[in-house]
Amino acid sequence: MVINRIVPLVLPEKIFLLSVLYRAQESENIFGQSQVTEHTVISFYLLVLAAESDTRSNDDLQDIIEHRSGHSTEITAFVLPVHQFNDWLIQDHPFASRVYEQASLLYDAGITPLAIPDAYNEAAAKEMLRSILDTHTAQAQEFIAGAGLFMLRKRYGLAAFHLHQAAEQIYSGIIRFLTGLRVQTHNLDKLYRYARHLLPALDTAFPRDSETEKELFRWLQKAYTDGRYNNGFSVKQAIISQLSERVQKLLELCKTLQYSKTTHT
């Protein structure tokens, strides 16, 4: 059990299950008429509330949970101090409110009780989050336009940086819109993992299911610093063209949320 591995390592206050990502496997055979479909868990998404007495950073705790628990299934963890989560509950924060109302509590140390929130104004939250998504989408479009200009000038390093910024805006916007959580990181790997369970179609833009695909994504990741500060950073035109197509696909997926009528969990 994944919880039994995490608790001794980080001694959390509470752990919530946010979602589970499955992979469907279908099989047919000549000996039976029915088609068999199996669902294998490939990733758990958890919210871990750190104890009041824990002085470690959120990033340190996240690293321990995701990389040192020794569990065979991938774990993606959002880590918050329990007092911050309680403050958010009192403030009707969209993320905290939805976790409180809908998430499964997998572990509770029972030391710090959760605050009791007032009635959650879902309609107001949706309107606010949709406005934020619109801003992220508009910024991503500008970065994509900037990348196109630098591609024309054959400044491929700067083009890659602008594509990174566009992808960052898209992933961050999707996460904020669908969860209410503002994620402050330039790490595209984290943003990708945070977003993929919210909108599975995102994997069609950057599937990362082969070494070639992983390498393509790594080019985009490296562009944040190397595209601006490393004079030796060199990207081939073919790579930039591929990245441009993929980031544009991300943008189109993001736009499907802009025009949706409801916020998804």
Verbal overview:
The chain is α+β, with helices and mostly antiparallel strands. The chain folds into two domains: 107 residues, GMP Synthetase, Chain A, domain 3 (2-Layer Sandwich), CATH 3.30.300; 137 residues, Nucleotidyltransferases  domain 2 (Four Helix Bundle (Hemerythrin (Met), subunit A)). It is built from nine helices and four strands; from the N terminus they run H-E-E-H-E-H-H-E-H-H-H-H-H. It has a four-stranded mixed beta sheet with strand order 3-2-1-4. Strand 2, helix 2 and strand 3 form a beta-alpha-beta unit. Helix 5 packs antiparallel against helix 9 and helix 6 packs parallel to helix 9. The radius of gyration is 20 Å and the shape is globular. The chain starts with a helix and ends in a 7-residue tail after the last helix. 32% of the residues are buried. The mean pLDDT is 92.
CATH architecture grouping of the largest domain: Up-down Bundle
Q: Using only CA atoms, what is the Rg? A: 20 Å
Q: Number of helix segments?
A: 9
Whole-Å distance between the termini? 25 Å
**Percent of residues in helical segments?**
40-55%
Whole-number average pLDDT? 92
Domains (count): 2
What CATH first level of the largest domain would be assigned?
Mainly Alpha
Order of helices and strands: HEEHEHHEHHHHH
Which regions are unreliable across 5 or more consecutive residues at pLDDT < 50?
none
